[in-house]
Each structure stands twice: as C-alpha cells, then as structure tokens.
Amino acid sequence: MKKIIIIGASSGMGMKIATDFARAGWRVGIAARNEERLRAVRDLFPDRIVYSTIDVTAQDAVKRFENLIEELDGMDILLYAAGTGWYNPELNLGKDEATIGVNVTGFTRIINAAYRYFKATANVSKGRIAAITSVAGVKGLGVSAAYAASKRYQWTYLQAIDQLAHSQHVNVSITDIRPGFVDTPLLEGNHNYPMLMSVDYVAPRIEKAIMQRRRVATVDSRWAVVSGLWSLIPDMLWRHLEVKM
Ligand SMILES: NC(=O)c1ccc[n+]([C@@H]2O[C@H](COP(=O)([O-])OP(=O)(O)OC[C@H]3O[C@@H](n4cnc5c(N)ncnc54)[C@H](OP(=O)(O)O)[C@@H]3O)[C@@H](O)[C@H]2O)c1
User: Fold this and answer.
1) Is residue 245 part of a domain?
2) Does the CB atom of residue 105 touch ligand 1 within 6 A?
3) Ligand 1 centroid vs 161 CA: distance in angstroms?
4) For ligand 1, is residue 185 a contact (CB within 6 Å)?
5) Edge to edge, what strands does the sheet with 3-7 contain?
6) Ligand 1 centre from 185 Cα, in Å?
7) Containing domain of residue 194, as a range?
C-alpha cells in the first residue's frame, strides 16, 4: 500500500487531500498542532490514517516527523501543506515572525528531513516531495510582506533541492504547487478576495500535479495567467500598484 505524509492536514487543503488519498486506498500520515482536529480526520478512515501532533516551529519537529514515517512504515510522498500568514499592512512584527516560523523555518526542517529520508531510501521506487506554496511568491506584496517573501523562499528552496537531487542522483521528484486564493481558514475574517476557489475545486488539481510529478503547478489556469502577468511588471511600476484585499 502506498503511503503519503501530509504536514498541515488538520484543516483546509491539507485535510481535504488527506481524506482523498485515504479514500483512494493509501495509508496516510497526518500532522499539525491541533490534536482534536487530527483525531477527527483520523476517525474518518481509522484503518488508513495515523496522526501525530507536530509543531513545525518546535525543535522536536524533525524527530516527530521521522517517528511518523516509522509509524507509517515508510513514505512515498511528503506533502507540506502547513502554512500561516496575515494581511499585515501595519507590519505587526509578531505576525511577520510567526509567518517566518511556519513558512520558512518549519518548511525547511520538514523538506530537508524528507530529502534526507529519500536520499537514504528511495533506491527502488522514486519518492516525491511536494509543497503548497502560493502565487504570492511572484512579487513583494505590500499588505503581506512576510507572507510573500516566505513563499518566494519556498519556491527557491524547492528549485534548489530539485537541482541537488539531480546532481546527487537522488531518486525523488520535487513539486511546487502555487494556488491563487482558496477559501480556507487561512483567509478567515479577511477581505474580499478575487477569483476565490473552493477547496473541493483545488484539491484534485493539486493531487494531479503531485501524481504527474510536475515541477511547478499553478492552480488554476486563470491564476497562472494573472501571476505570469504580475511577474512581467517592472519594479518601478509595481510600487505604484495599490493592492487592496
Ligand atoms: N488559502 C489560500 O488562499 C492559499 C493560497 C495559496 C497558498 N496557500 C497555502 O496553502 C497552504 C495550506 O493553507 P490553507 O489555505 O489550507 O490554510 P489552513 O486551513 O489554515 O491550513 C493550514 C494548516 O497548517 C497547519 N499549521 C499551521 N501552523 C503550524 C505549525 N506551527 N505546525 C504544524 N502545522 C501548522 C494548520 O494546523 P494547526 O493549526 O492544527 O497546526 C493547518 O492544518 C499554506 O502554506 C498556505 O500558505 C493558501
């Protein structure tokens, strides 16, 4: 039976993708901080899902991740779906630091550990590392500075380890999934988001990108066009754009 571990599976996209894989017959390891929610997800498929509470900002995150791999008896896919971020035009430092903690430090801990796991084990069948990043990495967003910067970091880190895997002949594919706005608790209480997508709409697109071993997948095609256009805007024009949400 194939095995996937999803970090950040207590809500939103990670939770939906976890239940989709379990329904399809996979063994699924899920992790996040909220144990009550993890248990509720596990109880939907008790014979296929195991959970572990992991706070990716804590020092023991890697150890707990490795224990989860052991409990699942291996891992074919790692999906990093944990994340946080705020609409933060007032540049509240606590929010910026919390964003970096999950999206940069925690992300690095888990992707780094997953790479080392596949380097040590994926000799026969190819491993997969995937992360849900965001279209927000394309440019500096004034109203979400740390979030946009953290997403750009994730893009670059994934590109770097893809190159590393190639040069070290490590049998693993790296997939960077970049959704536009998705209606999840991450956006709760916030503003009017254009082209908002539902979790049910994006989850199968993310799953397809992982299974097809896409290097980069923007979800959906409308967002691929919008973010492609953003990337073409020169900095001296970009600074004059007032991004409102
Ligand atoms: N929603 C959007 O519009 C959108 C668009 C593009 C990209 N994304 C990205 O998609 C990913 C998933 O977000 P989502 O929209 O599905 O939001 P979500 O429903 O808020 O899910 C975020 C997940 O991250 C987990 N998490 C947060 N802090 C954590 C920590 N310190 N340790 C471990 N897990 C932690 C949360 O669980 P606990 O709270 O239980 O720990 C939760 O399971 C994020 O990287 C986000 O940046 C979202």
Assistant:
1) no
2) no
3) 22
4) yes
5) 49-53, 27-32, 3-7, 77-80, 127-132, 172-179, 216-219
6) 8
7) 3-238
